Inverse folding.
């Protein structure tokens, strides 16, 4: 009986654990094509993703790395169907302001552009998972240009 429970627990852990070399966090929020052509630009509205990072109190360096890695995975998925040589993704989220007494809800505080990632289509298709894993580990691969333009919100 005990051996069966241990086997079930081990198999469950293997099934639910992320694949090696892949960022652990799934994409949440829409990714839209903002500009097509020779150098397409995608915009990921990561508001839901960032809200989860705040809830998990993961808004430090690790949260930012997870956001970058997930952004790169989203870009690598889009690179498979692209004919462009280079692709860019801008990651944004909606900031919230003070709670409105009239509506008892947080007000809109603007849009925060957190980062911009650019990479060649060939590198994204060939090794997008490895590149994302490197970003999540804190190493910026030479194939990826990272521009940090914002920050994650403070834990509330």
């Amino acid at each position: 009986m005990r051996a069966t429970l241990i086997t079930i627990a081990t198999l469950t852990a293997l099934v639910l654990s992320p694949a090696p070399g892949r960022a652990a966090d799934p994409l949440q929020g829409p990714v839209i094509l903002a500009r097509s052509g020779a150098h397409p630009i995608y915009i990921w509205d990561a508001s839901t993703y960032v809200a989860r990072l705040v809830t998990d109190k993961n808004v430090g360096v690790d949260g930012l790395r997870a956001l970058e890695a997930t952004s790169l995975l989203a870009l690598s998925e889009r690179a498979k169907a692209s004919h462009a040589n280079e692709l860019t993704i801008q990651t944004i989220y909606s900031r919230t302001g003070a709670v409105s007494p009239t509506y008892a809800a947080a007000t809109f505080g603007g849009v925060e552009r957190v980062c911009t990632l650019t990479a060649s289509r060939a590198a994204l298709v060939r090794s997008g998972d490895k590149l994302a894993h490197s970003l999540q580990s804190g190493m910026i691969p030479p194939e990826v240009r990272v521009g940090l333009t914002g920050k994650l919100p403070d834990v509330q």
Remarks:
- The chain has one domain: 2-148.
- The first strand starts at residue 31 and ends at 35.
- Helices lie at 2-16, 47-55, 61-79, 121-136.
- The chain is about 40% helix and 30% strand.
